[in-house]
Specification:
The complex is a heterodimer of chains A (about 140) and B (about 140). With about 140 residues, chain A is mainly α. Chain A has six helices and no strands. In chain B, helix 2 crosses helix 4. Classes of the chains: A mainly alpha (about 140), B mainly alpha (about 140).
Chain lengths: ~140, ~140
């Protein structure tokens, strides 16, 4: 367990650099902010009709590259909960919340903070605090997750 | 066409980064949020790693145009409204509950198994309901 931590950090840093590189390509190439919730949400609520193909191409990349990488890595496990009520409640909160806030971890977090956007920083502080309190409440007090 | 290929490339890099960084592993995300448990700092390395190329990219936009034409997105107004705070809190609750946010939710669909599809479907439903939720909020208490 202890031995695995430094490699986790390295993979985290390397993966993070790739995430930022993706955001840089989307910005410098297409002039667009790489925000996952905005890209998906625009397809869902119809607000992104004018650039639907671009959105779908981006999401195809996000979906397909892990398909190619998966066989190259051993013991990949997402450890997701199998509690359907929790999954549905969580999905609804993430869906409504990110659209109400106009951004998620990629849009507000990565793209917002990197341009020193006050909105991005404030959003990030709030979703991390809320996430932390949620884990404390539902894991340590209620024992649900 | 260039626009589509660049979007595919950007999404591919994003998907690769999410996969390699471990951000589709819900225990790593919940481990980061769980400051009173077995705290896992990986997410900070991911965020830090992602912000570096992105910050350089923002600096590079100065006085330039996007490769495919058009304009770079204008800086958002530094306005902190109720929707930003309430939405972010709601997002954080869902993020903490399942350990998934929108990007990793898409990246993990192919190998995460059925729970990821349930979460993804609920997230899409939430996104479809969001404009109504926003309108309800605005009619109850006007934002600003």
């Amino acid at each position: 367990m202890l031995n695995s931590i430094p490699t986790d950090w390295l993979f985290g840093l390397g993966g993070g650099l790739l995430i930022g590189l993706g955001g840089a390509v989307f910005l410098l190439g297409n002039g667009r902010v790489m925000g996952a919730s905005g890209i998906i949400g625009g397809l869902v609520d119809g607000s992104g009709k004018s650039n639907m193909a671009e959105r779908l191409a981006f999401l195809a990349g996000v979906f397909l590259v892990p398909v190619l990488l998966y066989p190259l890595f051993s013991d990949v496990n997402t450890h997701a909960t199998t509690n359907v009520a929790v999954l549905i409640a969580a999905g609804l909160c993430v869906g409504v919340g990110t659209r109400l806030a106009n951004g998620c971890t990629s849009g507000h977090g990565v793209c917002g903070i990197s341009r020193l956007s006050l909105r991005g920083m404030v959003a990030t502080v709030f979703y991390i605090m809320a996430g932390g309190l949620t884990v404390v409440l539902f894991r340590h007090i209620l024992g649900v997750i | 066409m260039t626009r589509i290929l660049l979007a595919l490339l950007a999404g591919g890099l994003f998907g690769a980064g999410l996969f390699i960084s471990g951000m589709t592993d819900t225990t790593k995300v919940q481990g980061w949020l769980d400051v009173f448990g077995n705290w896992d700092p990986t997410l900070a390395f991911v965020m830090g790693g992602a912000i570096i190329p992105m910050a350089i990219a923002w600096l590079f936009t100065n006085g330039r145009k996007p490769a495919v034409g058009g304009e770079f997105p204008a800086p958002p107004e530094p306005k902190l409204g109720r929707n930003l705070v309430l939405g972010s809190v709601l997002f954080g609750v869902g993020w903490g509950l399942a350990g998934l946010c929108p990007g990793p939710a898409v990246a993990s669909l192919s190998y995460g198994g059925w729970p990821h599809w349930v979460f993804f479907a609920a997230m899409l439903a939430g996104m479809a309901l969001a404009p109504m939720a926003r309108a309800q909020l605005d009619s109850a208490v006007p934002a600003e």
